[in-house]
Amino acid sequence: MAKIHPLSDVxxxxxxxxxxxxxxxxxxxxxxxxxxxxxxxHVLIENNVKIGDNVTVKPGVQVWDGVxxxxxxxxxxxxxxxxxxxxxxxxxxxxxFKTLVKKGASIGANATIVAGNVIGENAxxxxxxxxxKDVPDNTVWFGNPAKKKGTIDNNGTITYL
Length: 161
Hints:
By secondary structure, this protein is an all-beta fold. It has a single domain (about 1-160), classed as UDP N-Acetylglucosamine Acyltransferase, domain 1 (3 Solenoid). It contains no helices and 22 strands. It has strands spanning about 5, 10, 20, 25, 30-35, 40, 45, 50, 55, 60-65, 65-70, 75, 80, 100, 105, 110-115, 120, 125, 130, 140-145, 145-150, 160. The strands form 4 sheets. The chain has a 10-stranded mixed β-sheet, with no helix packed on it. A 5-stranded parallel β-sheet has the order 5-8-11-14-17, with no helix packed on it. The chain is globular. The chain starts with a strand and ends with a strand.
């Protein structure tokens, strides 16, 4: 059974076993969250969002429509996802761009992930980075705009370029 703090607004019934949703979160009704996740305080999860198992989402993150986080993903505090490349007030696209964060990827604090990109398996995105293109599996990226700076193995060992 999921543990949901009473000061959160969780409208979805699709919350996995042993998932913890902390205070001041909003989870819309069509969102899907897997087992054993930790959704920290002050997180918004929209309707067309799928979150896998063993995912950590730190405080201050908004997971907008079109974002998928696969299993074992780490999202650092205040990471920003976008889903509309040409946002306008009170004008909504027919569909939002999709963003995929693959298994085991980690995104550092305050990084921005521009809509429509794929973060590869086990990739590491450095804090404050701005991702403007697809990130291959097992690579390390940082900067603004982020650039490939190395590789990372399954044990977390980084080899810089």
